[in-house]
Design a protein that fits this description.
Length: 179
């Protein structure tokens, strides 16, 4: 099983440039030995860093919003991951229960959740994944109005799970994309 805490999307055939862009910024934030590797899918990179992924996202957001919109050229999306488990339903349920135990979710009975699933190189059924994750959540699931998104990223035999707010995923917006 691969261990990662960041999923990085880039353009096909720009994986090398995105890796360098990520590596440089992780070093600048203090991670002396980030581990960056290919996922086996074109345009998808995985990383394990000692830096909190949300700090990296905040770093990128501050630079692109306040200083240089084109600072990030090859990274299209950064998704933080809280826990990685084997890609089977029992492990998904166990991992989600551990994540909920670690994360102070459900303290408020009005908290709503969304479950987002992305699958790559997997025969698991999306509906099965959603059902198993929903069974672990203490409150309602809603696609439109939610406080937390349970992001499930199935990549072959490893699955990353994260509990995210809407602002926890980074997508840079260059001037070219705004037109």
């Amino acid at each position: 099983m691969k261990n990662f805490n960041l999923i990085i999307s880039t353009g096909r055939d720009f994986e090398d440039q995105a890796e360098y862009e990520l590596w440089f910024n992780l070093l600048a934030l203090g991670d002396e030995s980030p581990i960056i590797f290919r996922s086996g899918n074109q345009g998808l990179i995985l990383a394990k860093t000692t830096i909190n992924p949300l700090d990296l996202i905040q770093h990128f957001r501050e630079i692109t919003q306040n200083k240089d919109r084109n600072y990030i050229q090859f990274i299209h999306k950064l998704t933080p991951i809280d826990i990685v488990v084997p890609s089977d339903l029992d492990s998904l349920k166990e991992g989600m229960l551990k994540l909920i135990e670690k994360h102070p979710l459900g303290q408020d009975s009005t908290t709503k959740y969304r479950i987002s699933v992305k699958k790559r190189q997997s025969t698991l059924q999306t509906s099965e994944i959603i059902d198993i994750i929903a069974s672990t959540l203490p409150n309602d699931v809603s696609l439109k109005e939610y406080d937390w998104n349970v992001q499930v990223e199935v990549i072959g035999d490893s699955t990353g799970i994260a509990l995210l707010r809407k602002s926890d995923i980074f997508k840079p917006i260059s001037e070219k994309r705004q037109l």
